[in-house]
Amino acid sequence: MGSKCRSPKPPMSPGSSTSPKPAQPAKLEKVMSMNGGNGECSYDRMSVVQAYALNSLQPSLAEAVKLMSLPRHPSPLRIADFGSATGRNAFAYMDFVVNSIRREYQARNMIMPEVQAFFNDLPGNDFNTMFGLLPPVKGQADSEGAGALVREYFAAGVPGSFYGRLFPKNSLHFGICMHCLHWISQIPPQVTDPESELYNRGSCWIMGGKPSIARAFAEQSKADFRKFLHSRADELAPGGILQCYLSGRTDLADPTNQTIPERRHRFLAGPDFESAWDDLIAEGIITEETRDSFNLPCYVPHVEEVRDSIDSVGGFEIVRLELLEELNLYPDDARMSMLQNPKKCAKFYSSWIRALVEPLMAVHMGAECTDEWFVRHERRIFNRCRAMLGNPQEQEQYKFLTADFLLVVLKKL
Ligand SMILES: C[S@@+](CC[C@H](N)C(=O)[O-])C[C@H]1O[C@@H](n2cnc3c(N)ncnc32)[C@H](O)[C@@H]1O
Protein backbone atom coordinates (compact mmCIF):
# COMPACT_ATOMS: atom_id res chain seq x y z
CA MET A 1 0.00 0.00 0.00
CA GLY A 2 1.35 3.43 -0.87
CA SER A 3 1.34 6.31 1.58
CA LYS A 4 -2.32 7.26 1.43
CA CYS A 5 -1.97 9.04 4.67
CA ARG A 6 -1.51 12.67 5.28
CA SER A 7 1.57 13.59 7.23
CA PRO A 8 0.09 16.69 8.72
CA LYS A 9 2.08 19.65 9.76
CA PRO A 10 0.25 21.38 12.57
CA PRO A 11 -1.20 24.69 11.34
CA MET A 12 1.00 27.69 12.01
CA SER A 13 -0.17 30.17 14.56
CA PRO A 14 -1.59 33.43 13.15
CA GLY A 15 1.07 35.72 11.76
CA SER A 16 3.76 33.06 11.89
CA SER A 17 4.02 32.30 8.17
CA THR A 18 7.51 33.78 7.93
CA SER A 19 8.71 32.11 11.08
CA PRO A 20 9.40 28.38 11.17
CA LYS A 21 8.22 28.07 14.78
CA PRO A 22 6.44 27.71 17.05
CA ALA A 23 4.00 25.42 15.27
CA GLN A 24 0.68 25.11 17.06
CA PRO A 25 -1.39 21.94 17.03
CA ALA A 26 -5.04 22.26 16.02
CA LYS A 27 -6.94 23.62 18.99
CA LEU A 28 -7.94 20.51 20.84
CA GLU A 29 -11.26 21.79 22.09
CA LYS A 30 -12.32 22.23 18.45
CA VAL A 31 -11.56 18.64 17.45
CA MET A 32 -11.94 16.61 20.62
CA SER A 33 -14.98 14.36 20.95
CA MET A 34 -15.91 10.77 21.54
CA ASN A 35 -17.21 8.76 18.57
CA GLY A 36 -20.76 9.92 17.84
CA GLY A 37 -23.78 8.05 16.46
CA ASN A 38 -24.70 4.55 17.54
CA GLY A 39 -22.53 2.39 15.28
CA GLU A 40 -20.52 -0.50 16.67
CA CYS A 41 -17.56 1.72 17.67
CA SER A 42 -19.65 4.62 18.94
CA TYR A 43 -19.23 5.93 22.46
CA ASP A 44 -22.92 5.23 22.92
CA ARG A 45 -22.33 1.49 22.46
CA MET A 46 -18.84 1.11 23.90
CA SER A 47 -19.30 3.22 27.02
CA VAL A 48 -20.78 0.15 28.70
CA VAL A 49 -17.26 0.01 30.10
CA GLN A 50 -17.49 3.41 31.81
CA ALA A 51 -21.12 2.67 32.73
CA TYR A 52 -20.10 -0.29 34.82
CA ALA A 53 -18.18 2.08 37.06
CA LEU A 54 -21.43 3.61 38.24
CA ASN A 55 -21.93 0.50 40.39
CA SER A 56 -18.83 1.29 42.41
CA LEU A 57 -19.64 4.99 42.52
CA GLN A 58 -23.21 4.85 43.72
CA PRO A 59 -22.39 4.70 47.46
CA SER A 60 -20.08 7.74 47.28
CA LEU A 61 -22.60 9.72 45.21
CA ALA A 62 -25.36 8.89 47.70
CA GLU A 63 -23.12 9.93 50.63
CA ALA A 64 -22.15 13.19 48.91
CA VAL A 65 -25.80 14.09 48.40
CA LYS A 66 -26.33 13.84 52.17
CA LEU A 67 -23.77 16.62 52.69
CA MET A 68 -25.14 19.15 50.23
CA SER A 69 -27.09 22.29 51.12
CA LEU A 70 -30.52 21.81 49.62
CA PRO A 71 -32.13 24.83 47.96
CA ARG A 72 -35.60 25.63 49.28
CA HIS A 73 -38.69 25.20 47.13
CA PRO A 74 -39.64 26.93 44.84
CA SER A 75 -36.18 28.06 43.71
CA PRO A 76 -34.93 25.39 41.25
CA LEU A 77 -32.31 22.79 42.04
CA ARG A 78 -29.54 22.81 39.44
CA ILE A 79 -27.30 19.85 38.66
CA ALA A 80 -24.57 19.78 36.01
CA ASP A 81 -22.75 16.88 34.40
CA PHE A 82 -19.40 18.10 33.05
CA GLY A 83 -18.19 16.09 30.02
CA SER A 84 -21.35 14.07 29.48
CA ALA A 85 -20.42 12.72 26.01
CA THR A 86 -23.33 11.24 24.09
CA GLY A 87 -25.63 10.61 26.95
CA ARG A 88 -26.47 7.10 28.00
CA ASN A 89 -24.16 7.17 31.03
CA ALA A 90 -24.94 10.79 31.75
CA PHE A 91 -28.65 10.00 32.03
CA ALA A 92 -27.93 7.07 34.35
CA TYR A 93 -25.76 9.27 36.61
CA MET A 94 -28.37 12.05 36.55
CA ASP A 95 -31.16 9.63 37.38
CA PHE A 96 -29.20 8.30 40.34
CA VAL A 97 -28.32 11.77 41.65
CA VAL A 98 -31.86 13.14 41.30
CA ASN A 99 -33.33 10.12 43.10
CA SER A 100 -30.75 10.35 45.88
CA ILE A 101 -31.52 14.05 46.31
CA ARG A 102 -35.26 13.29 46.38
CA ARG A 103 -34.69 10.87 49.26
CA GLU A 104 -32.69 13.57 51.04
CA TYR A 105 -35.55 16.07 50.74
CA GLN A 106 -37.91 13.43 52.10
CA ALA A 107 -35.54 12.64 54.97
CA ARG A 108 -35.32 16.32 55.88
CA ASN A 109 -39.08 16.72 55.49
CA MET A 110 -38.68 19.41 52.83
CA ILE A 111 -40.53 20.00 49.57
CA MET A 112 -38.32 19.16 46.60
CA PRO A 113 -38.05 21.96 44.04
CA GLU A 114 -38.11 21.38 40.28
CA VAL A 115 -34.79 20.19 38.87
CA GLN A 116 -32.78 21.61 36.00
CA ALA A 117 -30.17 19.20 34.64
CA PHE A 118 -27.34 20.50 32.45
CA PHE A 119 -25.27 18.26 30.21
CA ASN A 120 -21.97 19.84 29.22
CA ASP A 121 -19.43 18.79 26.64
CA LEU A 122 -17.24 20.34 23.95
CA PRO A 123 -19.02 21.69 20.85
CA GLY A 124 -17.88 18.72 18.73
CA ASN A 125 -19.81 16.32 20.96
CA ASP A 126 -22.69 14.50 19.27
CA PHE A 127 -25.44 16.33 21.17
CA ASN A 128 -27.97 15.10 18.57
CA THR A 129 -27.44 11.46 19.48
CA MET A 130 -27.46 12.46 23.11
CA PHE A 131 -30.79 14.24 23.05
CA GLY A 132 -32.26 11.45 20.91
CA LEU A 133 -31.62 9.19 23.93
CA LEU A 134 -33.08 11.58 26.49
CA PRO A 135 -35.44 9.58 28.71
CA PRO A 136 -39.12 10.54 28.49
CA VAL A 137 -40.65 12.82 31.09
CA LYS A 138 -42.24 10.87 33.93
CA GLY A 139 -45.93 10.34 33.24
CA GLN A 140 -45.52 11.05 29.52
CA ALA A 141 -43.66 7.91 28.46
CA ASP A 142 -45.41 5.76 25.84
CA SER A 143 -44.33 2.64 27.67
CA GLU A 144 -42.51 2.96 30.94
CA GLY A 145 -41.15 -0.57 30.91
CA ALA A 146 -39.50 -1.96 34.02
CA GLY A 147 -36.00 -0.58 34.31
CA ALA A 148 -36.46 2.09 31.61
CA LEU A 149 -35.37 5.52 32.78
CA VAL A 150 -37.92 8.28 33.04
CA ARG A 151 -36.87 11.77 33.82
CA GLU A 152 -38.01 14.15 36.48
CA TYR A 153 -35.90 17.08 35.41
CA PHE A 154 -35.69 19.72 32.69
CA ALA A 155 -32.69 18.97 30.47
CA ALA A 156 -30.36 21.38 28.66
CA GLY A 157 -27.11 21.01 26.74
CA VAL A 158 -24.23 23.33 27.57
CA PRO A 159 -21.49 23.36 24.92
CA GLY A 160 -18.06 24.61 25.94
CA SER A 161 -14.87 23.68 27.74
CA PHE A 162 -15.16 22.84 31.42
CA TYR A 163 -11.72 24.40 31.79
CA GLY A 164 -13.56 27.72 31.84
CA ARG A 165 -16.80 29.22 33.16
CA LEU A 166 -20.03 27.68 31.86
CA PHE A 167 -22.63 28.84 34.42
CA PRO A 168 -23.53 31.99 36.36
CA LYS A 169 -22.01 32.52 39.78
CA ASN A 170 -23.45 30.53 42.68
CA SER A 171 -26.03 28.90 40.41
CA LEU A 172 -25.26 25.17 40.76
CA HIS A 173 -26.02 22.83 43.66
CA PHE A 174 -24.43 19.59 42.50
CA GLY A 175 -21.80 18.89 39.84
CA ILE A 176 -20.40 15.63 38.55
CA CYS A 177 -17.51 15.00 36.19
CA MET A 178 -17.02 11.35 35.32
CA HIS A 179 -14.09 9.89 33.38
CA CYS A 180 -13.04 13.29 32.03
CA LEU A 181 -10.35 15.16 33.93
CA HIS A 182 -7.47 13.01 32.67
CA TRP A 183 -8.16 14.64 29.24
CA ILE A 184 -5.98 17.75 29.14
CA SER A 185 -6.93 20.91 27.27
CA GLN A 186 -3.94 20.90 24.93
CA ILE A 187 -0.69 19.13 24.20
CA PRO A 188 2.11 21.33 25.60
CA PRO A 189 3.26 23.28 22.48
CA GLN A 190 6.96 22.29 22.78
CA VAL A 191 5.99 18.63 22.62
CA THR A 192 4.77 19.04 19.04
CA ASP A 193 7.56 21.39 17.96
CA PRO A 194 10.19 19.29 16.08
CA GLU A 195 12.87 21.80 17.03
CA SER A 196 12.19 21.65 20.73
CA GLU A 197 14.05 19.39 23.15
CA LEU A 198 10.65 18.27 24.32
CA TYR A 199 9.51 17.03 20.90
CA ASN A 200 8.04 13.61 21.55
CA ARG A 201 10.07 11.71 18.98
CA GLY A 202 9.37 7.99 18.71
CA SER A 203 6.21 7.92 20.79
CA CYS A 204 2.60 9.05 20.90
CA TRP A 205 2.35 9.44 24.67
CA ILE A 206 4.39 9.80 27.85
CA MET A 207 4.29 6.34 29.38
CA GLY A 208 7.83 5.06 29.80
CA GLY A 209 9.13 8.09 27.88
CA LYS A 210 11.33 11.09 28.65
CA PRO A 211 10.69 12.50 32.15
CA SER A 212 10.96 16.09 30.85
CA ILE A 213 8.09 15.47 28.42
CA ALA A 214 5.97 13.85 31.12
CA ARG A 215 6.67 16.85 33.35
CA ALA A 216 5.36 19.17 30.62
CA PHE A 217 2.15 17.11 30.55
CA ALA A 218 2.02 17.27 34.35
CA GLU A 219 2.26 21.08 34.26
CA GLN A 220 -0.51 21.24 31.65
CA SER A 221 -2.70 18.96 33.73
CA LYS A 222 -2.10 21.04 36.86
CA ALA A 223 -2.94 24.29 35.06
CA ASP A 224 -6.11 22.71 33.61
CA PHE A 225 -7.18 21.25 36.94
CA ARG A 226 -6.86 24.64 38.57
CA LYS A 227 -8.94 26.30 35.85
CA PHE A 228 -11.57 23.61 36.29
CA LEU A 229 -11.68 24.16 40.06
CA HIS A 230 -11.65 27.97 39.83
CA SER A 231 -14.61 27.85 37.45
CA ARG A 232 -16.58 25.38 39.59
CA ALA A 233 -15.79 27.38 42.74
CA ASP A 234 -17.45 30.37 41.07
CA GLU A 235 -20.44 28.41 39.79
CA LEU A 236 -21.35 26.30 42.80
CA ALA A 237 -23.51 27.83 45.50
CA PRO A 238 -22.10 27.60 49.05
CA GLY A 239 -22.73 24.08 50.36
CA GLY A 240 -22.82 22.70 46.81
CA ILE A 241 -21.06 19.44 45.99
CA LEU A 242 -18.65 18.54 43.19
CA GLN A 243 -17.87 14.88 42.57
CA CYS A 244 -15.21 13.87 40.06
CA TYR A 245 -13.98 10.49 38.96
CA LEU A 246 -10.90 10.16 36.79
CA SER A 247 -8.04 7.81 36.01
CA GLY A 248 -5.44 7.93 38.77
CA ARG A 249 -1.92 6.58 39.19
CA THR A 250 0.02 5.10 42.08
CA ASP A 251 3.56 6.38 41.44
CA LEU A 252 3.88 9.99 42.62
CA ALA A 253 7.56 10.46 41.85
CA ASP A 254 7.58 9.33 38.24
CA PRO A 255 4.93 10.74 35.91
CA THR A 256 6.20 8.57 33.04
CA ASN A 257 4.83 5.72 35.10
CA GLN A 258 1.25 6.58 34.22
CA THR A 259 0.21 3.15 35.36
CA ILE A 260 2.70 0.77 36.93
CA PRO A 261 4.69 -0.98 34.18
CA GLU A 262 3.28 -4.47 34.56
CA ARG A 263 -0.20 -3.06 34.20
CA ARG A 264 0.54 -0.51 31.55
CA HIS A 265 -1.93 -1.91 29.04
CA ARG A 266 -4.60 -0.93 31.52
CA PHE A 267 -4.77 2.64 30.45
CA LEU A 268 -5.75 3.05 26.85
CA ALA A 269 -2.26 3.87 25.59
CA GLY A 270 -0.57 0.59 26.47
CA PRO A 271 2.07 -1.17 24.40
CA ASP A 272 -0.49 -2.19 21.78
CA PHE A 273 -1.36 1.45 21.27
CA GLU A 274 2.29 2.33 20.62
CA SER A 275 2.93 -0.80 18.53
CA ALA A 276 0.07 -0.12 16.13
CA TRP A 277 1.89 3.09 15.10
CA ASP A 278 5.13 1.13 14.68
CA ASP A 279 3.32 -1.30 12.39
CA LEU A 280 2.01 1.47 10.15
CA ILE A 281 5.48 3.03 9.95
CA ALA A 282 7.18 -0.30 9.20
CA GLU A 283 4.67 -0.95 6.41
CA GLY A 284 5.30 2.50 4.91
CA ILE A 285 1.73 3.61 5.48
CA ILE A 286 2.68 6.61 7.57
CA THR A 287 5.92 8.40 8.29
CA GLU A 288 7.55 8.58 11.69
CA GLU A 289 6.68 12.25 11.72
CA THR A 290 2.98 11.39 11.53
CA ARG A 291 3.29 9.30 14.68
CA ASP A 292 5.64 11.71 16.45
CA SER A 293 3.34 14.67 15.91
CA PHE A 294 0.38 12.79 17.38
CA ASN A 295 0.12 12.90 21.16
CA LEU A 296 -2.60 11.47 23.28
CA PRO A 297 -4.03 14.43 25.25
CA CYS A 298 -4.18 12.56 28.54
CA TYR A 299 -2.40 12.81 31.85
CA VAL A 300 -3.17 10.46 34.72
CA PRO A 301 -2.48 12.34 37.97
CA HIS A 302 -1.52 11.08 41.41
CA VAL A 303 -3.81 11.87 44.31
CA GLU A 304 -1.23 14.29 45.77
CA GLU A 305 -1.06 16.26 42.52
CA VAL A 306 -4.82 16.69 42.67
CA ARG A 307 -4.66 17.66 46.37
CA ASP A 308 -2.06 20.28 45.50
CA SER A 309 -4.37 21.86 42.90
CA ILE A 310 -7.35 21.83 45.28
CA ASP A 311 -5.29 23.45 48.05
CA SER A 312 -3.88 26.12 45.75
CA VAL A 313 -7.29 27.10 44.39
CA GLY A 314 -9.09 27.02 47.74
CA GLY A 315 -12.80 27.54 48.26
CA PHE A 316 -13.57 23.84 48.79
CA GLU A 317 -13.58 21.44 51.69
CA ILE A 318 -12.21 18.04 50.68
CA VAL A 319 -14.83 15.43 51.56
CA ARG A 320 -13.10 12.51 49.84
CA LEU A 321 -9.90 12.25 47.86
CA GLU A 322 -8.68 8.74 47.30
CA LEU A 323 -7.29 6.24 44.84
CA LEU A 324 -9.56 3.30 44.10
CA GLU A 325 -7.31 0.51 42.86
CA GLU A 326 -8.14 -2.20 40.37
CA LEU A 327 -11.79 -1.46 39.82
CA ASN A 328 -13.50 -3.74 37.35
CA LEU A 329 -14.80 -2.01 34.25
CA TYR A 330 -16.82 -5.04 33.29
CA PRO A 331 -18.38 -7.94 35.21
CA ASP A 332 -15.70 -10.35 36.41
CA ASP A 333 -17.03 -13.49 34.71
CA ALA A 334 -17.57 -11.63 31.41
CA ARG A 335 -14.02 -10.21 31.51
CA MET A 336 -12.47 -13.60 32.11
CA SER A 337 -14.62 -15.42 29.59
CA MET A 338 -13.88 -12.81 26.93
CA LEU A 339 -10.17 -13.54 27.45
CA GLN A 340 -10.81 -17.14 26.35
CA ASN A 341 -11.89 -15.79 22.96
CA PRO A 342 -9.03 -13.68 21.54
CA LYS A 343 -11.03 -12.53 18.52
CA LYS A 344 -13.89 -11.24 20.63
CA CYS A 345 -11.53 -9.76 23.18
CA ALA A 346 -9.51 -7.89 20.53
CA LYS A 347 -12.63 -6.60 18.79
CA PHE A 348 -14.15 -5.39 22.02
CA TYR A 349 -11.04 -3.74 23.42
CA SER A 350 -10.04 -2.09 20.15
CA SER A 351 -13.60 -0.83 19.56
CA TRP A 352 -13.60 0.67 23.04
CA ILE A 353 -10.35 2.55 22.33
CA ARG A 354 -11.77 3.56 18.96
CA ALA A 355 -14.85 5.07 20.60
CA LEU A 356 -12.51 7.28 22.62
CA VAL A 357 -9.84 8.39 20.17
CA GLU A 358 -10.97 7.82 16.58
CA PRO A 359 -12.10 11.44 16.02
CA LEU A 360 -8.72 12.79 17.22
CA MET A 361 -6.77 10.34 15.09
CA ALA A 362 -8.91 10.96 12.00
CA VAL A 363 -8.26 14.71 12.26
CA HIS A 364 -4.56 13.95 12.53
CA MET A 365 -4.03 11.47 9.69
CA GLY A 366 -7.34 11.03 7.87
CA ALA A 367 -10.06 8.38 8.11
CA GLU A 368 -8.37 5.85 5.86
CA CYS A 369 -5.12 5.65 7.83
CA THR A 370 -7.09 5.61 11.06
CA ASP A 371 -8.95 2.54 9.76
CA GLU A 372 -5.60 0.92 8.96
CA TRP A 373 -4.31 1.81 12.42
CA PHE A 374 -7.23 0.07 14.10
CA VAL A 375 -6.70 -3.07 11.98
CA ARG A 376 -3.14 -3.26 13.43
CA HIS A 377 -4.29 -2.39 16.92
CA GLU A 378 -6.91 -5.13 16.94
CA ARG A 379 -4.39 -7.61 15.52
CA ARG A 380 -1.86 -6.75 18.25
CA ILE A 381 -4.45 -7.36 20.97
CA PHE A 382 -5.56 -10.58 19.27
CA ASN A 383 -1.98 -11.88 19.24
CA ARG A 384 -1.48 -10.89 22.88
CA CYS A 385 -4.69 -12.65 23.97
CA ARG A 386 -3.94 -15.74 21.87
CA ALA A 387 -0.47 -16.02 23.40
CA MET A 388 -2.04 -15.99 26.88
CA LEU A 389 -4.54 -18.78 26.17
CA GLY A 390 -4.05 -21.71 28.53
CA ASN A 391 -2.04 -19.57 30.94
CA PRO A 392 -4.48 -18.46 33.65
CA GLN A 393 -1.76 -16.75 35.66
CA GLU A 394 -0.80 -14.49 32.76
CA GLN A 395 -4.45 -13.85 31.99
CA GLU A 396 -5.03 -12.83 35.59
CA GLN A 397 -2.01 -10.48 35.46
CA TYR A 398 -3.30 -8.89 32.27
CA LYS A 399 -6.06 -7.33 34.40
CA PHE A 400 -8.22 -6.98 31.34
CA LEU A 401 -10.73 -4.11 31.73
CA THR A 402 -9.69 -3.08 35.21
CA ALA A 403 -8.29 0.34 36.14
CA ASP A 404 -7.24 2.63 38.98
CA PHE A 405 -9.34 5.71 39.62
CA LEU A 406 -9.31 8.85 41.68
CA LEU A 407 -12.46 9.73 43.56
CA VAL A 408 -12.72 13.42 44.42
CA VAL A 409 -15.65 14.81 46.42
CA LEU A 410 -15.55 18.51 47.28
CA LYS A 411 -17.92 20.79 49.15
CA LYS A 412 -18.04 24.47 48.22
CA LEU A 413 -17.33 26.64 51.26
C1 LIG B 1 -14.64 9.33 28.37
S1 LIG B 1 -15.85 10.57 28.11
C2 LIG B 1 -16.83 10.43 29.58
C3 LIG B 1 -18.28 10.63 29.30
C4 LIG B 1 -19.23 10.39 30.45
N1 LIG B 1 -19.01 11.35 31.52
C5 LIG B 1 -19.14 8.99 30.97
O1 LIG B 1 -18.80 8.80 32.14
O2 LIG B 1 -19.43 8.06 30.21
C6 LIG B 1 -14.96 12.09 28.37
C7 LIG B 1 -15.76 13.28 27.88
O3 LIG B 1 -15.12 14.48 28.32
C8 LIG B 1 -15.27 15.43 27.29
N2 LIG B 1 -14.28 16.49 27.47
C9 LIG B 1 -12.93 16.40 27.39
N3 LIG B 1 -12.38 17.61 27.58
C10 LIG B 1 -13.42 18.46 27.81
C11 LIG B 1 -13.48 19.85 28.10
N4 LIG B 1 -12.36 20.60 28.17
N5 LIG B 1 -14.69 20.41 28.29
C12 LIG B 1 -15.83 19.67 28.20
N6 LIG B 1 -15.82 18.34 27.93
C13 LIG B 1 -14.63 17.75 27.74
C14 LIG B 1 -15.03 14.63 26.03
O4 LIG B 1 -15.50 15.31 24.87
C15 LIG B 1 -15.81 13.37 26.36
O5 LIG B 1 -17.12 13.44 25.90
TrEMBL record:
Is Cytoplasm tagged as a keyword? no
Q: Could you tell me the keywords of this UniProt record?
A: Magnesium, Metal-binding
User: Which InterPro entries does UniProt cross-reference here?
Assistant: MeTrfase_7, MeTrfase_capping, SAM-dependent_MTases_sf
What is a single molecular function from GO for this protein?
Answer: methyltransferase activity
In the UniProt record, does the keyword Metal-binding occur? yes
One of the Pfam families matching this protein, by short name: Methyltransf_7
Q: Where is this region: Disordered?
A: 1-26
For this entry, the protein name equals Uncharacterized protein
